Amino acid sequence: MTLPIGKNEYLMGSTPVFGYGVSYSELELDVALSGPVAEIVFDIEGTADLTDLLDSVIDTDFDRNELKRVLESEKKPENWRVGEALAELFLTCHKACCFPWPDGRDERKSGSSLPGADLVGFKEINDDAFFTFGEVKTSTESGYPPGAMYGRTGLKQQLEDLRDKVGIRDDLVRYLGHRAVTASWKDLYIRAFKKYISNNKSVHLFGLLVRDVKPHEDDLRVRVLSLGKDCSNEMSIELHALYLPEESISKLSEKVMATKREGAK
Amino acid sequence: MIVNTDSLEQIDNHWAVMALDSELQKGQKIAENLIVKNAVGNQIYLGGESSQYEQEVINRLSMAYEMVAIEGLNAVLRPTSSNDELLKQCTAGCWKAFEFRRLMHIPTEKTDKILHILHVSALAYCGDRWSDLRRWYYENNEFTNVGIDQDMTWDMRLLITLYECWLRLFRKNGWKDLNDISSIIGKLREDQKTFESGALNNSSQTHGRVMALRLIGLYHWAKATELLALYMLQGEPNDITTQLDKHFESGVEAANISKDSQLEVLLRWLHAASKQMVSGSLWSLARAGNSRVTQFVKNAISNQALFELLPPQRIAIQEQGLLDPAATAVVVEMPTSGGKTLLAQFKILQALNQFNSESGWVAYVTPTRALTSQITRRLRRDFSPLGIQVEQLTGAIEVDAFEEDMLLGLGSERPFDVLVATPEKLQLIIRNNKISRPLALVIMDEAHNIEDETRGLRIELLLASIKRECKSANFLLLMPYVEKAEILARWLAHDVNAARTISLGSSPWKPNERIVGMYHTVPDDSVRAGWRLKYRTLVTSPKTIHLDGEHYVGEVKPFKIPKSKMTSLSLQTAAMATIMSGRGTSIAVANNINSVWNMARKICETLPILSQIPEEIELVCKFIQTEVSADFELVDMLSRGVGVHHAGLSDEIRSCIEWLAEEGKLLVLCATSTIAQGINFPVSSVFLASRFVPLGRRSKEMSPRDFWNLAGRAGRMGQDSVGVVGIAAGDKPADIVNYVSRATGEIVSQLVTMMNDLEEAGKLNQLSMIIQDEQWEDFRCFIAHLWNEKKNLELVLAETEQLLRNTLGYEVLRSSADGDKKARYLLEATKDYAKKLSSNPGNTALADMTGFSPEGVGRALAGMNQLENKLTASDWSPESLFGTGTALADLYGIMLRVPQLANSLEDIGGEGQEKKLLAEITHAWTNGMSIKDIAIQFFKGDQTSSITEACRAIYRNLVNAGTWGISALSRMSGIDFETLSEAEKRKINVIPAMIYHGVSTEEAVLMRMNSVPRSMAENLGKEFRGNMKTKEKAPDVSEARKFLQRLEESDWEKLRPKESYLSGKEYKNVWELLSGGEI
């Protein structure tokens, strides 16, 4: 089952930076949540077992009481987590992307101070493969654009870093390389690597904003313009704003949990 | 995890590297240029700062090679028998990735900086390049600092603290550096109580969980760090690898779960690096060894901060079987700085252990007296704590009375375990069975001297003798740059399987990069009569960096000399050395003593007196003023940082100069090419005015091997990324281009060379006659020894061929392409000679005893019989010989008739006056006259020339030939030694030593044998005599040493000559320096 394509709300920009707005109806959202999104959110093998890991801390001679307390408390997937899964699904189904990483374990950083990307993978165009990096922000705010766009860990900064800092892209490529060695997608990696090593700007960047307000171009307008300045034509940057039904984000987690209880379809 | 050149070549076929396409070559050129520019860019002009573009290209190459490495990383982390190929691939990939990544700018932002530096370091270790990494740290020291700010979160504090621990692990600045790690980690555990909850309870639940996982990763990393540091220091725990695996894997898992890609990758690399560190640790040798080895390792680690083995050392031990007990003959072919001495030390420990119950001993043979001292120092420093006794034999050819006692095991000390000596000395000892204990191991340093024209045959025959007579002896030959070294190993081993060759041929390891080139002057009109130096690199056979084009070196007119005078090659050399001294000590080599002085003078016209003269230089200056002359120009030169080194200076002064150079206190050292044999340590640059060296009256081209040995001294492994070597282009640059591209070739026995020369001249059938020539002297001694042993012609003839087969040359001749014709001629001629010897067996016996050839003995005896006043026993006393009589002159007269001695003695004075002059100089010398006064009294010319001549006279003529001659003649004098008392015997036997050391009492000789400067030897000798507990017992070398060690500064002050420039304390310091302690 795939994610429905949604309704095109707006399109802007010119090579190499474009911005798109897409909206989803309640029905389309429910379908997605009950199927493929749930699969992504929940590790098929169940939640990671942290017991062994916690036990291992004893041998480090560091104290583990606080760690235990934090890690053993019940947790449910947070709303932003579901938003991210939606975004990933969107890119995979409609943008010919494939994201081997992250690979399904369900602890994830968000808003942490570590640079990198939320999604790391590939995009194929004909016979070519490109490294692809995605950043996702979920926001329940009402402003256009929302606060998640700005700040030290905002979407703006993250995309600019990916666009401008070779070091960050290199790190991600290397990291993926560590995983590629024994992976089924190794061939894809090799093709993308060859492209990248001749031109480290030859990558695809995606910035996704998941919102539950009415669609409006102001979300992306300024971003598209400013990212387009000083951007090499060999890079491709796409900004997508996914508009879920109004005020639906706060209930995303519940809905997905409901699916889990019934068993993922 | 040892890299070889094959795997380096193979990985260039990897898809990641192939993807680089033409960028690969471009990048390599950029990298080479950058390495050289970073190292010498201030002196040699190679363009400006590294551009953004260059950095990008290098980054690309580094990434591609790293990809190669990543593919094999799992094999490194979990090695099995089936993933060996991947392991090699990873190591090779890291080797290359480091090559480029080390040239990139270090980021300024804290986290980026930490990750970059740790990344570079891990790549270095995984690529087996820790020595290069150390140097990288040295060069980038100012950039590695990262401080902790007050408001940093707990995880950042952990990161920075652990980073600093790993800086210590990678840099290994000393034992304390590593030892502190344990308490640093301990403090982290304390700090956990203060800072952890702040980090965990900060914001959202998710954030808290992520932080918790991150901390778990960091705690495991901390524990692994602690364990690794402990292991490097103490060799424990035994299961270190398993424990490291456990903690690093847990850390990686935690990072993985929290999607912390940076930490995950970092920990994987550090895990691999830590495994490499463990396997290269010195402790890996202590495992199988004996308790002495373990102690040696412990001491090396705590006292010398020697924690890990260099790649060549690891290859030698772990891959090529250096310590395999079945290997009876090992040849180690390794460049300077490869760490040969450490290998020799392990071999010594092994040999002593093997022969412990029989009190076996070890001989360490070095080609020159200077090296003998250096090696003795090093061995004593490392072995004394283990209770291993190291003794040094003097460079005198004969064995003096005290040495005799020591060898026989008399005296209070326990017998020696290791004897350090020159080949000539050892030869005499072996031939005369001076030591009854079994010889366990012979180590020959700079063994390529086997092909030296003057001494090569002697060395070959020494080894042949040992092989024949010391059945239990193993061999270890150390040499640089030899092809087909296995020929030597097989020669000396009992059988082919017992021979081992350890060669770095297939290893890409080098102590540092090197450029080899030519320089010349070009006009520059910006200044009147102006000129500049230009340098270009050449392509050579050992891998050196080759840059395009010619480059200016330094500024216009570095010497205030007009262009017209700068055609002198030695002046050009001096100029190059001076400019390049800006980055480290340079050696400027000329091929005669006068040129050396001239270079030094010209350089001193340019260099000012050092603004702060180091204590070390001051000490040496005072020593020179005391021992030579107060206004000797060398003193002024040293105060400008310029040293001089050649045969016209005393051994001790040369030792002091070498010490100054080794300590990095000199800017320029001007020397003749003999410096190559005299120094064991590297400098930053080496420049030669010419590739020709004097040989007797003519000159010949330095052999490629000698050249590369000298060039090999350029570049200090710990500090210079690039060693610079240059030859003056002169008017035939094409010849030089050709010269440096020649391979060093195999070792050729002198015996073979001599026979080939005869064959070419069509004189093979005259060998029985030619064998009487000087060139064949050592060979005749060799045969004479056999005769002396058997004392029966038939037995000798029966064994002649067997004797010859012990030599390297004979076997080579026998198996040569054109049949064994030459071998048969040699055999015949040898038998003929043996027959001749049978007509005068007495001479043959004396030959063995004295080291003369039988013919030399014959001449000497004839000479003694022809004396007007025959010598009696009473003539053989110091008072008589060094007094006013003619006995000494007569003896010199005889010596001048012995070919082996005549060469060295003839250089002095005019005709007919020689023997009288020699006697007078000897008299003056032993009676304590200063070198300055000897120079004034006996030699003409300005102060420097007369002092030079005086030094040469004393050190070449008297000290070598004179002592040998006196010693030999005393044994041939017809005196019946059996009827003399011990004291009388010793009195006679001590005379040569008095000449050797320039003193006139026994006690002073003992002081000199312990490196006391000559100006204080008599005074200290008297004090020693006064202090001796039992006056009847004969004093010996080690008692004298103990006496000296007990003296306080005040004693030295009390006993020093009042007019000397050295205070008591300074005398003591010089003594410590010369005898091998550190000041």
Automatic annotation (TrEMBL), chain A:
It comes from the Bacteria. This is DUF1837 domain-containing protein. It comes from Paenibacillus agri.
TrEMBL record, chain B:
PROSITE patterns: DEAH_ATP_HELICASE, HELICASE_ATP_BIND_1, HELICASE_CTER. It comes from the Bacteria. One of its GO terms (molecular function) is nucleic acid binding. Gene3D superfamilies: P-loop containing nucleotide triphosphate hydrolases. The keyword Translocase does not apply. Coiled coil: none annotated. InterPro entries: DEAD/DEAH_box_helicase_dom, DNA/RNA_helicase_DEAH_CS, Hel308_SKI2-like, Helicase_ATP-bd, Helicase_C-like, P-loop_NTPase. The keyword Ion transport does not apply. Residues 609-759 form the Helicase C-terminal domain. Pfam families: DEAD. Keywords: ATP-binding, Helicase, Hydrolase, Nucleotide-binding. Residues 321-540 form the Helicase ATP-binding domain. This is DEAD/DEAH box helicase. It comes from Paenibacillus agri.
